[in-house]
Protein: TNAP2 protein
Amino acid sequence: LHMGKTMKEDLTVVAKYINKLYPPEFNVFSIYAELYHNYFASQAKKNAESHLEDKDIYLLLSWVHNFYPKEMRKDHALAMELDKVKLGSLLPSSLSKELENKYLDSEEVAVKNSLSRCLDKEIQRWKEDKEPEKLNGHFQSELLGIFVIQSIYSSQKRAEDISKAVGEELSHRLLKELPAFLRSYRDAFEDFKEKSKKHRHYKPILIANINNCWNFR
Structure:
């Protein structure tokens, strides 16, 4: 953040005031921009090649695909000058792709584990002597129906905020995870229906799960 702010503010000063003090053939703005970019890119590469936590990978990719090219370089005071310089990306494409794959792998596992924990909690609720919650007057599982959908949606949204391509790839992966989760859910529910007919709230629990199906569709 400090580097980005410094680069943006300094290049704005160069564009507004320093550039016009030199003859055009000196390419003063281009020289400043390239030097700042090269330093920023070297730091980004150094970070990318070190051990990064998942949240750091997400942040670095956000800089590479989003903050740097869209917010910094498209700033109204800099865009026209920077378009002439052709600075390129903060990271080599191979290293960027490697980080994207790490992010996608970790996010896929995180969502899968989250859905699994959610189903375990739901199964535990069925075993309790407790009537399901009502939403808008109907029995429904807020935990299962709403939490699962929100988990997948928020994960997709975070990926799309990095780039459209990363978002599409994660969506493709999660479209495989959701059917697997739904099969586990169906199997657990069938098991409950078969073995828990004497449960005091058997019928409301059945209704709640049937109502969940509409949300999942």
Summary: Helices lie at 2-18, 28-48, 54-72, 79-85, 93-127, 142-162, 164-195, 202-216. The beta strands are 134-135, 138-139. The chain has two domains: 1-91, 96-215.
